[in-house]
Amino acid sequence: MIDKKISVRQAGILIIICLMANKILLLPSLMFQQIKSDSIFAIILMFSLDLIFLPIFLKLKSLYPNEKLIEIISKKMSKIVAKIIYIIFAIYFIFKVLLVFSITYVYFKQQIYQDEFLWLIIISCLPVINHALTVGLRAFSRTIELLFSIVIVGFILCLAFSLFTEMSMPILFVSDIKSFFSSIYKHAFSFGDYLFLFVIIDKIDIKKGDSKKLYEYSIFGMILVILLFIIFFSKYQVTAFMHNNALADILVFSIQFNAIGRLDIIAMLTIMSITLFQLEIFAYGFCDSFINLFPKLNKFVVILFFDLLFALLYYFSIGKYEILVNTSHYWSPMLGIFVNYVFPIICLIIIALSRRRKNERKY
Amino acid sequence: MKENIKKIFHNPMLIVFILILIFFTPLSIYSPGENRNRGIVTAIGIDKNNQEIEISLLTFIPTANQTYKVKSSIISGKGTTVAEAVYDAQLQMGRKIGLAHAKTTIVNEELLSEDVSMYVDYLSRVASLPENTVFISTNNTAKELLETSQSLENELGLKLEQLVGFNANNIYVTDTSLEAFYKGYFSEVKSSIIGSISLEESDKGSNQEETNVDDSKENSSSNKKISNKGEAVLLKDGKMVAKLNIDQLNGINLLNTRALNQIITIDNVKLNDDLYTLNYRIKNKNIFSNTNFENDIPIYTIQLKLGMELVEINGLHDAIKMNTEFSEINEEIQNKLDIEIKKQFTNALNVLKENKTDVLGINEKFFRENRIMYLKYIENLENIDDFLDKVNFKLNVIIQPD
Amino acid sequence: MSYFNVYKIIQELKIEFNESIDFSYRFYKKDGQIIAFIYLKSIIDQNLLSNSIYYPIQTFQQMFSFDDLKDKIIKCGDVKEVKFSDVVKEILDGKVVLITNFTKKILSVDLYKFPTRTPTEPPTSPVIQGPREGFVEDLQTNITLLRRRLKTKDLILKTLRVGSQTQTKVVIVYLKGVANKKIIEEVNKKISNIKTDGIIDAYYILSYLEDRPNSLFKQIGNSEKPDIISSKLLEGKVAIIVDNSPIVLTVPFILIEDLQNSNDYYTNHHYSSFVRIIRLLGLMVALISPGFYLALQIYHYNILPLNFLITIADTTQGLPFTPFLEILFIFFLFQILYEVSLRLPSYLGLATSVVGALILGDTGVKAGLISPPGVIIVALAKIALYTIPEQSSQITILQAIFIILGGSLGLAGIVAGMVYLLNYLNSIDSFGTPYLAPYSPRIEDDLKDGLLTHSVLDFKKRPKSFSPNKENRV
Prior knowledge:
By secondary structure, chain A is mainly α. Chain A contains 15 helices and 2 strands.
């Protein structure tokens, strides 16, 4: 996929949207089931680990301003390693698409639509994703940039309106270290969203002094998510496990403003747009990795393949809703571990190798 | 023709749009809309009579008028479980039920003799009853309460939810919603408190009975009336253990900053050589509480700073002449108020202790502030519920004129 | 010695013009010298012809020579020498061609005249305060209007002729050193490549200029007001004036230009910011409110506030239509009324409004065919459309699409439709300028003239969106 470059601001916004992923809906209640309110610490810890990606990314970008990641890896390591990494990327992104989609589908089913309308949701989302893939990264990141302020205002409104009820500080430090880390391990897949930046490393136009912006945007996004966690737990305390859709549920149980009626429409629109953006981003991640694996393929073939794969995987996992939603099983922790820990190490090795090469040249 | 088909395939979004037009639009053109497909329920009552569950739904009935007056009727269904009863009600109504706007859920006391959570669980999880619905109990059947509430609406223009909302804001003060119930239910102490509204025989109704026997028989609910005494029900493990009257509730509410406007009456106060009865109202409230262990005894210290306002004076002589706004609170009044407040609080606390229901969050407070000591202490206890009994309360009341 | 057989030539020209009734000629003979005046009487100033050409020739006492004719005798208009092969074209351009038998040279005198309007305020963009002149159908007048505002030698006017039959003059206007050369070249190339028999109006050129001619969205700006065009030229845009059209096109075009109104610049900028926000809101209301209402009614009764839900349920009870059909019915009713009122002569306008508003609306409700909330929602959307009249045709189509999406798919359909629409708009480039600039991509400097406008004092730089050659205005 040959795309024109996107600006740092757009990249930062994409990262914020990625960061929210499933964390604004299901993750808070899932984590609460295991480690209660200590999930706040878990998420802060994971976010700070995530932040390590950024300097690595910026270093890599400064070393190879215009090269694709696959080219960098094949140059510094080997073609096979690069291909394997990209296969894992493709799997990671397609599962991320599935995860986000299925979580949102459940949300739609529970709160927006009264009956199950699977096809209705699919026909709303999939064509838009396909169109976004055809018009390319630049066009859809511009859309996200345009709607970003509205979405964030919606998000903040959700947080603000939810403050209109009684809340008490969540009880912290209740879980032991072992369960704390096992929970982090189980939910590792939900993190590591910076991977997307690496996939589009050649398509970001970073000017001098702009790299600070990336930090600012990511920290802003993280603060929003952490705030959501804190508000969610302080609002629901022990019943947090019952509420699967954090962002929407914090609104439901607040004071009702008579004239406006139910305020969760703000949450609904916010979540719907965030979800669509995430699906676009992750689908793009998948298609981009895939096309790098098979460079000869036509863009449209890849998009069609994505649709088929998505439909197939979704069809086989729809009955096993828990597999997708309880990301704590089977494949997902492994993928998470790879993305969160192994991949940064590979990047560090590449940076080290390229530095050595440069030094050699000097002397 | 070929050209046209080619053109269509040139733009994939057109295909999607055509697909939508073919597969979805006819369905929705045919669909009369959710608001006509569903019976919009504004209140639910669940009753249990001899192992049979009866669910009563106060359902809004659309009428082609433009007076904008809500016309509702009660539709009930029976079954051995709530799900069956709801299904039965749906059959009666000929529509699916829509609980999204149900603002009140009423259960009768017989239902509360068992774990009530298993009855409301279906409604809240599957039938998407919103968790902020007001959750109350009634001494009679919920169905009758709903029926009576309709006449209330006709006479006073007052909806049940408004009545309950008034209670929730002024009497129960702690939320009496389904969510609040669940919060208590799932906490360590497993105790929660929900409001209660009773039905009583009304005088007017009995008069009617005398004069027109046939009519009252047909319309048996009309001789009952809603009597809002501001009562509440204490639940332990989802079962009802005690009923609190308004005085006991006020005692509990002393520890709630949101609960204001309580009236405290003291008798035999000597003012200007005469004895008066004074009514004070709490205007503002500051609560500082603290927990600690002294010699392995848990101590809960509360400092209650109350801003009081004199609202009424009753006495033999010239009571009206006295200016309530500038009255002083002298030592005697202070002492009497102090005693009265402490009495109220102790009364309420005794009920809680008797029933081992910690709705005040004493356990949680100890856990938050003295976690290690608390856990150690709990280990020695047989049951976590016994903890409330062991706590030594120290109430310190400071009264300020407002 | 005679160079031309004047009579023969006239006969030939007569045949060439198919003996058209406005083909005219006159002779002047004196001492064997013959001067023939050939012209189309429909497009020349005949008074001027007799006063400034015929009369001086008659009173001239000496023998004629070409130079005398050209420099001394004829005292008006552009007088120039033309080739014989150009004679037909010159005649068609409203010139009087002088053919003589004493010289080989042919003279043409510009006496072009046809009835024109005087510049008046265009009905499409009235202003409360500000200049009221508008372009007219005459190219010369239009250029004059622009010249009057831009007294600079850098104002370049380049003429091209388009259309094999109409030979319409198309003038590309730009400020040298300000407009981007690439854009000028592209416009030039696109116009030169037009192959058609006729250009009747500026809108004929429009489709040739657009990158995506099949798109619903216009990618070329237009205006009827010289003050707007001048300010756009100063921003570094390229304007295209087409003869016989009062509409002047500008490229590149971005969507926000339609949110900007010339009124905005002639009032307080705080107020104009407010008005622009209202316009955007109006746009949103116009776009989605019928679809949204339908989605809520068909799929999401739970989102509607209870009282509103009750009102809707009460009023729709007993209607013969389902919600979807009801909205479609009202929508088309309004659209038909709109079309009718547009076409009808103004004295019948009152009749249509009476029929439309009173009989169809009120009685429709009373007869139980349509519900009051439905009428309100669709009417609101239809009125909100005209907060941005320039986009009303596009939005009308989008309204219909959103009604179908909202009705068929619910809220998800509307959100997806919105995201799709924005993705699509973002993929459009108008002459290298992103269509939704300066908001996506965000161009900080250009936001001064965005929704929240700054005072004119802050417009020190030209908008970057149009990539002008020179960014600083001064």
